[in-house]
Amino acid sequence: MNEVKQDNLTDVYPEGALKELADIGVFIGRKKSKTHPRMRPYILATRNEVEIINLQKTMDGLNNALGFVKEKTRSLPAPDRAGGQAGGGKFMIVGTQPHAAEAVAGFAKEFGIPYVNVRWLGGLITNFKVISKRIDYYKKLKSEFKSGAMQKYTKKEQLGFEKELKRLDELFGGLENYSELPGLLIVIDPSQHAAAIREAKRAGIPIVAYVNTDCDPEVVEYPVVGNTKARASVSWFLGKLGEAIKEGKIIVSAPNEATNVEKLATSDQRQATSDK
Hints:
CATH superfamily of the largest domain: Glucose-6-phosphate isomerase like protein, domain 1
Largest sheet: 5 strands, parallel
Shape: elongated
Structural class: alpha/beta
Number of domains: 2
Radius of gyration: 23 Å
Helix content: 40-55%
Strand order of the largest sheet: 5-4-6-7-8
Number of strands: 8
CATH class of the largest domain: Alpha Beta
Distance between the termini: 82 Å
Order of helices and strands: HEEEHEHEHHEHEEH
Number of helices: 7
Strand content: 5-15%
């Protein structure tokens, strides 16, 4: 892929609010030959056969997605808001590309949500009952190794269980708290996760996605167009989502705090009246 040097983009993104995004490479799309026809409105220019993303469009999509994430977070049943529950299920995130896997795991662990960063397992959403049983078996096997319960087996049997645990860890390592269907799916690059998109669509689960210029932006409800091939760019996107979840939690907790203050004030008034 031909490189686009940032030094040549001062005329496209001069000093200003969008320069930070340009500095971390959010503006770099895919080759022009790979551009999806529906991505044309999101492209500002082409340099060295590489599409230059219109960062104003990126910010518009981001603001739309963040507003939705905040609303979803506000609707969460207490006390599991930190886990991002929405619509009866936790948020789930998928991003299996090498440059995204670490950031995806970090994001998921911070908010206590299930994640897939190695390989999407077919039926993870559409065959939830069967998959959940396999996850329970994985957790049981993992617990037995940790507790030393495997000592009752022969060495050959232990090696067999160890091999099985390693295989299951790759499939279910980020899904130990996957106890119900997600209320929202976050995807890094839908072009790499067609199966996950199909399953979410079939189950009626809304999708917030970071999409590149080779993707169809209309395949998800909340697309944010940017460079899905760079670690810094992916981390920027996830950082913004994390801020939205935190803000949603703060907004939700504020009315409760106000109610507590009112209750305390009422209690003080009653106590004062009683003392008189």
